[in-house]
Automatic annotation (TrEMBL):
Protein name: Expansin-like EG45 domain-containing protein
Organism of this sequence: Manihot esculenta (Cassava)
Signal sequence interval, chain numbering: 1-17
Gene Ontology process terms (BP): anatomical structure morphogenesis
InterPro entries: Expan_Lol_pI, Expansin/allergen_DPBB_dom, Expansin_CBD, Expansin_CBD_sf, LolPI, RlpA-like_DPBB, RlpA-like_sf
């Protein structure tokens, strides 16, 4: 973990530190809504309910082996006669294997980039030139959620999926311990937003997360999350929300709000 944080520091210090880096690329859209349910982040049938269905699959450098799952981006197409200057905000829920575009959007998100009444016109294009930047995810009155996956077997195996992560960071490590204990054990990223361990502490469980934040990483504690009788298929409130903004290294930098 210390090597990762040092590497992160090097990346930021090697260029202009910035909250919002603007990138130029192209974007397409999923023609079938069912594609959203099979995303590499593992959200499954829950995916269409996130961010009003404004979702995206991102290339590997954005997916980050699953660490990018749940990240939010503001994206707008560059045809000013067709598209609004605000664009739309999408949440990453999948990995994009197509090297022709950085993003493949849900059709709802793709249409939302257009000016009012021109959604069908942008769909006809199929692929458009866009620019985008990472922005904080905002979940009003909603804490970070911990969903116990159906594969979990209390007390022998625990798999969790993280939902509703706010801020502009990635979770890069998770530890778990019994509430009140300092005997922490690590969890491994199984895939996407799913973490697991076969060494499950007894009793009620607490978690601590390492997130990329500012120029470095930081620990964030969720001191009482799962009850001793935790059950699969249930989403538990972590009692915390992440609001940190991780710095990027880039030029140009754009901290203005696209309207």
């Amino acid at each position: 973990m210390s090597l990762f944080l040092c590497f992160l520091l090097f990346l930021v210090s090697s260029a202009t530190a910035c909250d919002r880096c603007v990138h130029q690329t192209r974007a397409a859209y999923f023609s079938r809504a069912s594609a959203l349910n099979s995303g590499a982040c593992g959200y499954g049938s829950m995916a269409p309910g996130f961010n009003s269905g404004h979702l995206a699959a991102g290339i590997p450098s954005l997916y980050k082996d699953g660490a990018g799952c749940g990240a939010c981006f503001q994206i707008r197409c560059k045809d000013k006669t067709l598209c609004s200057s605000k664009g739309t905000t999408v949440m990453m829920s999948d990995l994009n294997y197509n090297n022709q575009t950085d993003f493949v959007l849900s059709s709802r998100a793709f249409m939302a980039m257009a000016n009012q009444g021109m959604g069908r016109d942008i769909l006809k294009l199929g692929i458009v030139d866009v620019e985008y930047k990472r922005v904080p995810c905002e979940y009003k009155n909603q804490n970070l959620g911990v969903r116990v996956e159906e594969s979990s077997q209390n007390p022998n195996y625990l798999a969790i999926k993280l939902l509703y992560q706010g801020g502009q960071t990635e979770i890069v490590a998770i530890d778990v311990a019994q509430v009140g204990s300092s005997n922490w054990g690590y969890m491994s990223r199984n895939y996407g937003a799913v973490w697991d361990t076969s060494r499950v502490p007894a009793g009620a469980l607490q978690f601590r997360f390492v997130v990329t934040a500012g120029y470095d990483g930081k620990w964030i504690w969720a001191k009482s999350v799962l009850p001793a009788d935790w059950k699969s298929g249930v989403v538990y409130d972590s009692g915390i929300q992440i609001t940190d903004i991780a710095q990027e290294g880039c030029s140009p930098c754009d901290n203005e709000t696209w309207k």
